[in-house]
Amino acid sequence: MKRFEADKQSVSTDHCDYVDGMPSAEAVLNNLKTEFGVRTNRELSDVLEVRANTISTWKKRNSLDYARLIGIGKKYGMDLNRIFLNNIASPQHNDIIAVPRELQYQYVTRRRENAFLETLPRYRFPFRYSENARAFQMADATHSFNFRGVSYVIGEPDLIEKELQYGETYVIVSEKRGLFIGRVEQQQGSRNMINVITRDNEMMKNSIGMDRSEIMERWKVTNMIFQDLIG
Asked: Which of 7, 51, 128, 158 has the most CB within a 10 Å radius?
């Protein structure tokens, strides 16, 4: 069984607010201001190459253009974990199952097979999570920014019977459609249909629609971590 221990990273939490364990959009933007040494939204918008009102929109919606932010971070040689990671702590002793991209199709159909789960790598991360947490590799939507790293979300198991918290990020498993990581929103005019927004930026938006009854497993995302493969 493969094992990987993520390097411990420090992260600034000054002025940070968290939404169910995830840094809010405002917290991430404050971290960026600190890293770039700017104070106003207009100054930050110049660095990020977006309109000034875009910053306000991100805060209001608690949603970010992660592809752009990751690309800007790599452009300036920043530690992405200092921007996005929260709840930093000494590494825990328990490893958790990690599902890489190339095995997520198999995971959808074989997630209940212990023999299959035993073949998956196990990672240890430098922040708090439960022993039942699971890590899922995110698709690299940032190739246009020359980011060749590996990024994972860490999810805590979420009971199907519970109400979805719209606007929050989940790992959604549907045997009919596959595995998706993204922000969940309710479709307008429908009580049962949802959209999983897997890419949400100004240039391109990708959304997967499905009936809530299709969801066979879901994980509430509480953290993200980035491992740079460039060195």
From this structure: 158
